[in-house]
Queue: 4 jobs
Job 1
Amino acid sequence: MANSIRKLKEVMTRNIRTVGPDASLKEVASKMDEQDTGAIPVCESDEVVGIITDRDIVLRVFSNNLDPATARARDVMTPSVVSLNEDQDVDEAAKIMQAKQIRRLIVLDSEGSLTGIVSLGDLAVSGQRERSADVLEKISQSPEKKGAA
């Protein structure tokens, strides 16, 4: 039986909280906690300029010897975000996640405004469990294992 959920707007997480590039890491972490998420888009003038994850905070603060009390979102965010339109197909999102080895995609409306985020978890809940498991396996492979048979 074919899956009836085909478009990102049907599976994405909506009402996403955002932060600006100059937000403190405390503010970022508080918003993550409030929304029970591990990722927050970073926006400037209604444009997504990056994404920051809980992992980004931990790894980049400590590996770059940053002071968590003074570091800002821009200091630890990933500036290159991958986005899709909310009317694009769920399978296309899964293929892009797999190819780019990412766990989340920014979802934009037809005017290019942030409308949500789609994650591997969203794909799994949407009935795409097998597909999301395959994507997760490919994303999680270390560089040494990728070429192995």
Note: Strands lie at 39-44, 47-53, 83-85, 104-108, 114-119.
Job 2
Amino acid sequence: MTAAAVARDHLLDIFANRAAEQRPVILGGAGAGLIAKVAGSAGLDVLMTYNIAKFRMDGNASLLGYLPYGDANGITLELAPRIIPAAGGIPVIAGVGAADPYRDLGRHLDAIIAAGYAGIVNTPTAGVYDGGFRVEIEKAGIGYAREVEMVRLCQEKGIFSLVYVFDENDARAMAEAGADAVSPHLGTTGAFTNLEEALADAVDRTNRMAGAARAIAPDILVVAHGGPLETPETVQRVLSETSATAYIAGSSLERIPVQGAVAAATKSFGLLTLRRE
């Protein structure tokens, strides 16, 4: 078997074993080796890394990863020797920008596996764009259709593919292309006003996209992510009311906890006093 096929089988086994235990697979984003090391030692199932995670760990907004700053695919390759060894044997999925004009997609996928990654996720994705800009990038051949093409290549090469989908059409297209897992993208983590309404919408959208994908590929995996899903309680709501068997923790694992912990420690040290003479 190829290295890609071995890694894919290992990831599928993780999903199957967790399902047998009636537990979700937790996938966590890591843009720094320390996050990978701590999360892996704490029992995380799968790590993911991509340009967005690197921007996040540098103190920037996640959305910066969708703007024209930096070489997204280059950043992910550079992260390999920093994240993979620190993960301590936990499989690491790599973000791949499918529309990169300076890399042959097939050769780049081979390079991702050669670097030690276990599979791919379509990050950065054109799916976050809408309106006239989305129409134009699709017409130019550098939109979401390239990501569907990437999944077809992964299927041919035996590479595990987890993909963000944004509506039922995306879900059907990715299922037809052979994706191993679809993740209904509910928007930027924490981007909501009314929590109850946001959770009801998250359940509805996840179910609709999961249904569309499974109408094509009944065994496709469904992974929850984004929007109001930033605490164990909110994630549990979606896991309990949808067919999702996994959760991607990006900001909710590396950015939000780090911000809280560092702020709390800083304030605690700030309360220290000097000896009185």
Note: The CA atoms of residues 73 and 108 lie 9 Å apart.
Job 3
Amino acid sequence: MPSVANINLKLTQMPVILNSVSEKIPRALTIAGSDSGGGAGIQADLKTFTAFKVFGMSVLTSITAQNTQSVSGIYDLPPEFVKLQIDAVLSDIGVDAAKTGMLSNEKIILAVAEKIKQYRIKKLVIDPVMRAKSGDTLLKREAERALIEELLPLAFVVTPNIPESEVISRIKVSSLDGMREAARRIKSIGCEYVLVKGGHLKWSDEAIDILYDGKDFYDFPSPRIETKNTHGTGCTYSAAICAGLAKGLNAREAIRQAKDYVTEAIRNSFNLGKGHGPLNHFWEFE
């Protein structure tokens, strides 16, 4: 039987796991809507954070009754309660990077912008969510101006798809040159980086995303994967970028890593429900 002295020696040699983990683990916050079907929104963001091994926190802005086929109902939370959630998280746990998703009305957008400024969140990824994969509207038309004028200037990275980039830049986008011009116009709003996603350009065999930093353009190509199971792609992509930033990556490396991750999540997506199935957020663990 080991002596008490030997037991004590072994205990002192054991690493203090809980303290070291809590001190080092990156923290990522998603401010977005809930998808009851689990494929997009808060649910997709938290799955992505987990896949990237960052500690995920959430602020709900809206609750949707949603599945793979459609959005049958939206309930927006009161702006004051959205702010209360942000206060609860940031006054205690803090954050290394944050992202926004569905912010369906002007009052919620203004509430989120107020708190972003108050807590001086610099690593902010804005996914300017306007429509669900089903085509249902997730951003009220009258709220577009508040999103563009009040929130986008606070972004470190903004990630519009082509339809969203057309709304923000107010030009028609149908080519890579059009994506670059849209990026220029969006950058002039005040954000640090603009990532225009090219998945809607169906004429190409590749899905090419274009990053603009105000000086140079960078292309992020990937094979186009023919599947209907792409529900939650935008949410997952922006959450993956946020996770990379939380871990200390620069914008280009965070985007490159996120692009690789989301491409494989689409490649390994699966049929679930009767409409657009979800990505496989945990493909790396299979």
Note: Strands lie at 27-35, 55-66, 71-76, 97-100, 124-126, 157-158, 193-196, 206-212, 217-223.
Job 4
Amino acid sequence: MKAILLSIKPKYVADILNGKKTIEIRKSMLKCDLPIDVYIYCTKENKKLVYHNLASGGKSYTYGKEFSYHEHDLNGKVVAKFTLRKIEAIDIWQEDLEEKMKLACLSIKEFDDYSKGQVAYAWHIEDLVIFDEPKELSVFKYIRRAKDFECFMCDIYQSGYDCFKQKCSFPLTKAPQSYCFVEVE
């Protein structure tokens, strides 16, 4: 099944997992059919996104505090997925921008600094599923279209056949800078 792997900073992943952030802002428009599953990869940085189990059976997600023995580090892991059904263009002059920025957990200045006055895109986060066990990148297969480059990695090429009309996929070893299309079993 085709899906998207989206890299997000731990600070914003915490807001998503805690239910505060329901819109993710991106500079580029996605070129795919909706709806599509989007997997959230929590990027690595010095400040950690951690969770600990609550007595009530739930979990609490915290960004930037000291890591202790009873908490679990989520940086560098795929921590959740959501269904992307709606993407909308937004810009600094939009009437409901303040409302949209509250849903994105951004100030208008942060949005303007990020978009540099250009149109950006609001990805609406729906049907969020937080994984009990975070997933490693290697679970996902990166999808590349062989027609875009010469592919020397796949079995089709190495067996001597022309693979330029095929899709190639192989396990991820490195997170995407923004997002990439992946194959999920």
Note: Confidence is low (pLDDT under 50) at residues 156-165.
